[in-house]
Amino acid sequence: MLSERQQRILRLVVDAYLHDGRPVGSRAVADNVEVEWGPSTVRGELATLEKEGFLTHPHTSAGRVPTDSGYRFYADALLASNERLPLRRSPGLELTQMRREVDEAMRETTSALSQITDLMALVTAPPPSSARVHRVEVLLLAPRVAMVVVIASNGAVAKRVFPFEQALDPGLIEWASSYLNERLGGLGLGARMIADRLADPELGDSERGFLAEIGGAFVDLEQRVEDTLYVDGAARLLSEEHVDDLPQIDALMRALERRAGLLGMLRSALDERSVFLWIGSENPEPALRSVSVVGANYGLGYRNLGAVGVVGPLRMDYETAIASVREAAGELSRFFETVYEG
């Protein structure tokens, strides 16, 4: 258990190292206006912090730099204070004015998060198991041609055109749109469930026949639903500003190209209720153990649907990353409340 003085000194060392990337000596800490102890006291505490595994030094005469444990202590302190703060709103993360299509919302969020943090941003779409029928449109394209558009709650869209031998009644088309939305809205995807819901013995022959003809549109939708990972900002992560802090860049690049691994890693944190971090060696993906991942889950009140996150060097701006992923997750949660429950 670190003393209050050791905690303050550790935070000062991490702050200074995050700011300029240079090892921090005892004189630099002692000269800080927040410090009331002399250089000899600071040297002793730095030695203790190094012995406890929170700091290390590149060589004998150098100052100290944080270890993974030092970054973890610093990030946990930020998390504790961040959880008590209200969500702030950054201009790039406002989703309420967007059209309801999920794909656009996810891409906007990923792009904005990367810009705000100057890091690589990741956003996972809701899993296939959570998808439900959101909206159905039946359109008359020509006297004997109808098109059915089915939109799932996770953004998957199926469009299919159906030719008929006889001219279609416009009233039947209008009825079909209304009926399908009423019967299928909010229903989980699955051909058997949809078929059961449409098997209404009270329908007339023409209505039953028309629904039987267009039923394939719902099968198409079920086949389109898949796990999706949105990525933006790889060039920001690999820019000159960060490249010196990425010691294993080739392995990192290979890991970032394997989207299935990134998706699985974020999916593994779906049970987390707040902001989560993997710092260096804590990362479940071995090739990412030279970087940090800061993430947060979004979803509905009763379950998480996906995660937003940023990937950056160990020496990253944790305060901005934590606040930004928390805000992005909040925005997506509000967005999906309108999609799933609106």
Head-to-tail CA distance between termini:
49 Å
Question: Per CATH, what is the topology of the largest domain?
Answer: Beta-Lactamase
Cα-atom radius of gyration: 27 Å
- Which CATH class of the largest domain? Alpha Beta
Helix tally equals 14
Walk me through what this model shows.
- This protein has 342 residues and is of the alpha+beta class.
- It has three domains: 4-66, Arc Repressor Mutant, subunit A (Orthogonal Bundle); 101-127 and 227-341, GAF domain (Beta-Lactamase, 2-Layer Sandwich), CATH 3.30.450.40; 130-224, Enolase-like, domain 1, CATH 3.30.390.
- Helix content is 46%, strand content 18%.
- It contains 14 helices and ten strands.
- A five-stranded antiparallel beta sheet has the order 7-3-10-9-8, with helices on both faces. A three-stranded antiparallel beta sheet has the order 4-5-6.
- Helix 1 (4-20) crosses helix 3 and helix 4 packs across helix 14 (318-341).
- The longest helix is centred in the last third of the chain and has 24 residues, at 318-341.
Brief account:
With 342 residues, the chain is of the alpha+beta class. The chain is built from 14 helices and ten strands.
